[in-house]
Design a protein that fits this description.
With about 180 residues, this protein is an alpha/beta fold. It has a single domain (about 5-175), classed as P-loop containing nucleotide triphosphate hydrolases (Rossmann fold, 3-Layer(aba) Sandwich), CATH 3.40.50. About 50% of the residues lie in helices and about 15% in strands. It has helices at about 15-25, 45-50, 55-70, 90-95, 110-120, 130-145, 160-175, and strands at about 5-10, 30-35, 80-85, 100-110, 150-155. A five-stranded parallel β-sheet has the order 2-3-1-4-5, sandwiched between helices.
């Protein structure tokens, strides 16, 4: 079997993950399939605490579950793209536990002002525009920098422009995964 990949697209709320992955998905790239972390449902804080010991533990468990699910995709899915607000360390930790697909993480990042504007405007989730989300975004950027991850800064990009950058990454992975004759 040729190499196959999971590409996790992470970032803070308002960075553009879902809109950009949806725009990528709409392009119908052969061998590429997109998935959305939150489609499994996000439990309440109380449920996370009761069932997993807290939000971080739930995030780690859900990330591992997603990677296990994506590892079982058919061979014709060369690149599985997952829109996921999760820690890169959780992705790589789960990937290290016998996930047969090679795993990459891309961070979508933007300025705090743009994130706040998006959360107040199109997202209609102003409660997420707070110091905690700014801290989460800074943490993710620090992890991306420390791990040498690709960062797409969406501050000044349209969804289409950011999707084009993500598509270039996906196509490079897909070309690497393509079987040789």
């Amino acid at each position: 079997m040729a190499n196959s990949f999971v590409l996790v697209v992470t970032g803070a709320s308002g960075a553009g993950k879902t809109a950009i992955v949806q725009a990528l998905d709409a392009r119908g790239i052969p061998g590429v399939q997109c998935f959305y972390f939150d489609s499994i449902g996000v439990p309440t804080a109380e449920e996370m605490e009761r069932d997993h010991g807290g939000g971080e533990q739930w995030q780690a468990s859900a990330t591992a579950d997603w990677l296990a699910r994506l590892s079982n995709l058919p061979e014709d899915v060369r690149v599985a793209v997952l829109d996921a607000q999760t820690r890169p360390s959780f992705v790589f930790g789960a990937a290290g536990r016998a996930v047969p697909r090679l795993t990459h993480v891309v961070l979508l990042d933007c300025s705090s002002d743009v994130r706040t504007s998006r959360l107040h405007g199109p997202r209609k989730q102003p409660e997420l525009a707070n110091a905690r989300m700014d801290g989460w975004a800074a943490y993710l950027r620090g992890q991306a920098d420390a791990l040498g991850l690709t960062v797409i800064d969406t501050t000044r990009l349209t969804v289409i422009e950011a999707a084009e950058q993500l598509e270039m990454i996906v196509r490079r992975l897909s070309d690497t995964a393509a079987p040789t004759a």
